[in-house]
Amino acid sequence: MTELLSDSAADEALSTLSGWHRDGATLVRTTERPSFPAAIEVVDRVAELAETADHHPDIDIRWRTLTFRLSTHSAGGLTEKDFALARQIDDLLAAR
Ligand SMILES: C[C@H](O)[C@H](O)[C@H]1CNC2=NC(N)=NC(=O)C2=N1
């Protein structure tokens, strides 16, 4: 699960996500929420998912716009862990 994915495997996995793009070895998704408190609630839920997965996104908070960045630091690039958490974040955002 923590093996680096090849470029083509990463692109294929990316095509199954919504709203993410690749910035080299990082997955990036930006989302705008209705308000600052609503954005912080999302951050709080993502923090729970990240703790459960023991995998943590970089999160940029600008008023009600959030940007998540995922990469597996220990592997030096993208692994299944990044795609698994990205999918959970997609599901969370879609449900709100
Ligand atoms: C010990 C623990 O499993 C590691 O430090 C985890 C924690 N969260 C992590 N998060 C991310 N994004 N990459 C990692 O390599 C990573 N490593």
From TrEMBL:
GO terms for biological process: tetrahydrobiopterin biosynthetic process. It holds the Pfam family Pterin_4a. The keyword GTP-binding does not apply. Its EC number is 4.2.1.96. It is an enzyme of class 4 (lyase). It catalyses: (4aS,6R)-4a-hydroxy-L-erythro-5,6,7,8-tetrahydrobiopterin = (6R)-L-erythro-6,7-dihydrobiopterin + H2O. GO terms for molecular function: 4-alpha-hydroxytetrahydrobiopterin dehydratase activity. The keyword Lyase applies. Keywords: Lyase. Gene3D superfamilies: Transcriptional coactivator/pterin dehydratase (3.30.1360.20). Belongs to the pterin-4-alpha-carbinolamine dehydratase family. NCBIfam families: PRK00823.1-2 (NF002017). PANTHER family: PTERIN-4-ALPHA-CARBINOLAMINE DEHYDRATASE (PTHR12599). This is Putative pterin-4-alpha-carbinolamine dehydratase.
